[in-house]
């Protein structure tokens, strides 16, 4: 399927590995130009080399912390125009809420709520003026089914979800701009492995036993891949998804037990 985004410019945050990398790869395969960001320069350049090898679109890198004002400014400056914005940042650490102080909460909010809002603020009016824009926020399946040890993530990402619910239904929706959230369940990423290590430590199981237990609880009987997550992201960014707006798209292999 031609996604209709050949030549569009995309800014993909935290894209050196994991889900961000999967999204960047799918967008490049669809013909988009991408600016990819991450804090680790070496991993970012390695990913950029893989993306350039696809042979479609231009790939630019910006090493820096997207959760800072300087990091955001550098990323935006590298992108001639932002037609597609994929918001992503590493999730805060798991733990017990009794151990988190105010600084821990503010760091979680900065990374997983306020940074996406700042990037949307910097790009959405330009999208509306050009008559096309796609914003995809990578949040978490924990927004729908909270995980007890991920309280920092539950709180910050739920705040972003509430904000997006209002903005997506503002006048920008009538100007070709869509804003949606992608909610990953258990995907085979470094983030999942760290979460499982914490869960295994709390349960007294070893990590492999804990991972097997997690997989068995998913109807698909496996963890997701970054490539299939990226494919869904690319579709949301396509011309075919112009009537899909303000939604929370859950990708979890059927693990969420609810009807809605």
UniProtKB/TrEMBL annotation:
<protein>
    <submittedName>
        <fullName>SDR family oxidoreductase</fullName>
    </submittedName>
</protein>
<comment type="similarity">
    <text>Belongs to the short-chain dehydrogenases/reductases (SDR) family.</text>
</comment>
<dbReference type="InterPro" id="IPR050259">
    <property type="entry name" value="SDR"/>
</dbReference>
<dbReference type="InterPro" id="IPR002347">
    <property type="entry name" value="SDR_fam"/>
</dbReference>
<dbReference type="InterPro" id="IPR036291">
    <property type="entry name" value="NAD(P)-bd_dom_sf"/>
</dbReference>
<dbReference type="Pfam" id="PF00106">
    <property type="entry name" value="adh_short"/>
</dbReference>
């Amino acid at each position: 399927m031609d996604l209709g985004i050949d030549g569009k410019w995309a800014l993909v945050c935290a894209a050196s590995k994991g889900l961000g990398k999967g999204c960047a790869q799918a967008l490049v395969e669809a013909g988009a130009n991408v600016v990819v960001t991450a804090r680790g320069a070496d991993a970012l350049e390695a990913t950029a080399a893989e993306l350039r090898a696809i042979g479609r679109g231009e790939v630019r890198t910006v090493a820096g912390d997207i959760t800072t004002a300087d990091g955001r400014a550098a990323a935006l400056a590298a992108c001639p125009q932002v037609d597609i914005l994929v918001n992503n940042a590493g999730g805060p650490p798991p733990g017990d809420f009794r151990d988190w102080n105010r600084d821990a909460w503010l760091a979680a909010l900065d990374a997983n709520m306020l940074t996406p809002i700042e990037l949307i603020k910097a790009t959405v009016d330009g999208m509306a003026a050009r008559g096309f824009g796609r914003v995809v926020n990578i949040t978490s399946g924990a927004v729908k089914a909270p995980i007890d040890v991920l309280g920092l993530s539950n709180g910050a990402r739920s705040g972003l979800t509430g904000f997006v619910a209002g903005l997506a239904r503002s006048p920008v929706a009538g100007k070709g701009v869509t804003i949606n959230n992608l909610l990953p369940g258990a995907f085979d990423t470094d983030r999942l492995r760290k979460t499982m290590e914490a869960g295994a430590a709390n349960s007294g199981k070893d990590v492999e036993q804990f991972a097997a237990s997690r997989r068995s609880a998913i109807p698909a009987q496996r963890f997701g891949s970054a490539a299939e997550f990226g494919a869904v992201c690319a579709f949301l960014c396509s011309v075919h998804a112009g009537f899909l707006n303000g939604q929370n798209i859950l990708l979890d292999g059927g693990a969420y037990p609810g009807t809605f």
